[in-house]
Amino acid sequence: DAGVIQSPRHEVTEMGQEVTLRCKPISGHNSLFWYRQTMMRGLELLIYFNNNVPIDDSGMPEDRFSAKMPNASFSTLKIQPSEPRDSAVYFCASNSQGNQPQHFGDGTRLSIL
Amino acid sequence: AQSVTQPDIHITVSEGASLELRCNYSYGATPYLFWYVQSPGQGLQLLLKYFSGDTLVQGIKGFEAEFKRSQSSFNLRKPSVHWSDAAEYFCAVGAHSGNTPLVFGKGTRLSVIA
C-alpha cells in the first residue's frame, strides 16, 4: 500500500523564490497535517485539514506561508517569498480522524540560500 | 490543553543494555498515547499505541510501553538495545474524540555505543 507521498524530497533555492511542497495523503484518510522540523524548535504543527477544510492554521509562521487542499488526494504548502530561516524539513501526515495514528511522509528537506 | 514532556533530550546506551525513554503527558481525561521513531532522513514511524485496556502495550521492533495513569506517564522500554535502534523517539498524546491533532513531545535522541 502506498503511504503518504511527498515531493520533492529535496529542494534548494535562493531566497525570494517561491517554493511549493506537495503531498498526497493515504487514500481514505480524512485529515491531513503539515509539520516543520528544525533542530531548534523540533516538530511544529503548521496547519491541518479535515475533509479538505483548513481547521487550524495558527502554526503557520507568517503570511508568506499558505496551504491548500483542493481535493482529498492532494495538498500543497507554499512559501512566497522564501527566506533562509525557512530552511527545515517539512513533513506531511494523514490519518482517518484526529485521534488515530498519523502516517508520515518522508519529508521535504528545504534549503533556502 | 494537552502537552507532552520528554525530559531526556539525548540518551546513550550500550548495545545489549536495556532502555527506558520517559514520557509524561498532561490531559484532562484518558488519553490516546503513541510512540513514534524517526531514523535519519526519514519520516516518523509508529512504534506502538495505547487506546484502552491492558496498560502494557507491545509494539514493533521489540519495544513496549506502559501507561501509568497515576503518574501521567507512558514510558517506552526495550530489554536489549540493538545498534539499529539509534534514532529519535517521539511521544504523542491524542484526545479520545473529535478531530484535534496529536500533540508531540520534543523527542529523545538515542545513541547506541558498542
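Chain A has a mean pLDDT of 93.
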